[in-house]
Amino acid sequence: MPFCKKCGYPLEYECDEGHQYLQDCPFCKSYESIPRGTNQLLRIRNSTGYDIGVYLRYRYVHRGEEEVLISPTKGYEKQYVEKPVWYPQENWLHYNFSNGEISSLLDDGWTIQADMIRIWAESTRGRYVWEKYKNVALRIGEVNEQKKTFIHIFN
Fold first, then answer.
1. Looking at the structure, do residues 82 and 54 belong to the same domain, yes or no?
2. How far apart are CA 2 and CA 61, in angstroms?
């Protein structure tokens, strides 16, 4: 089964020229149009009574000035831009949590900050699964909200 190259959502087909995610992917279509929220620090608490494996995809909103082409005659101009990007581009990040553990998550040595997440977990023996937000994004940062820490609790 092919997957969206941007968000990893499973697709029913892939076109010959390659997947155009904003046009073809129902997940990207529905979530790219949501206003960009404030990136929040993310922590996870395991209150399940079991050791678990946590799987995560997160949307980080890149903000800053960028050279943007205004027109061929006027050239480039610096403008403020916001670009929401889902990480990782493919697959899921994986973390192991002992029962009762609470921790921030890192991606390549950086503390994860996001405005939306997709997250799920399973017990290390595979007997129990928590997947409410596996295929549906959870907004953790609202528009114009102050930066804070969001704690997602598995119980």
1. yes
2. 26
Based on the structure, what is the number of domains in the chain?
2
* 45, 104: one domain: yes
In terms of Cα–Cα distance, which of 147, 153, 149, 139 is closest to 58? 139
Cα torsion 147, 5, 10, 115 to 10°: value is 10
pLDDT at residue 17 greater than cutoff 50: no
pLDDT at res. 78: 82
Q: State how beta strands 52-71 and 75-87 pair.
A: antiparallel
Q: Are residues 28 and 81 in the same domain?
A: no
What pTM did the predictor assign? 0.71
- Domain with 16, as residue range(s), is 1-33
Q: Are residues 108 and 54 in the same domain?
A: yes
Q: Pick the closest to residue 38 from 117, 152, 150, 143 (CA basis).
A: 143
Backbone angles phi, psi at 136, to 5 degrees: -130, 130
* CA-wise closest residue to 141 among 40, 33, 34, 61: 40
